[in-house]
Amino acid sequence: MQKSFKVLNVKCGGCANTIKESLKDEFGEVAVNLMQEPRVIILEIKDEEAEVSFRKKIRSLGYPVEDEELGTFTKSGLKAKSFISCAIGKINEN
After folding, report:
1. Partners of residue 65 on adjacent β-strands
2. If residue 5 lies in a helix (H) or strand (E), which one and from where to where?
3. How far is CA 7 from the centre of its chain?
4. 16 pLDDT more than 70
5. What values do phi and psi take at 5, rounded to 5?
6. Phi/psi of residue 31, each to 5°?
7. Cα 13 vs. chain centroid, distance in angstroms?
8. Is 41 in contact with 58 (CB distance < 8 Å)?
9. What is the pLDDT of residues 48-90, one digit of tens each?
């Protein structure tokens, strides 16, 4: 089933590239809508276990799903991670 998730800290094509590359082996084609705020990621989720896996993976890149309860310290750490993921995505675009 195709599902969409509102994700925080996604800023640009570099972020989108990192997300797509990091998720493609497990979830296949991943779409990132950079026209909405917060950004929307659309992908194929087979079951609840796959959704849990997606949420862990996307958060590990610094991009938490909007509905997560996060403390200030955690938000700051994830924002820093997202800058690194973004930079990697920009490097890999070329």
Report:
1. 7
2. strand 2-7
3. 6
4. yes
5. -135, 135
6. -110, 140
7. 12
8. yes
9. 999 999 999 999 999 999 999 999 999 999 999 999 999 999 9
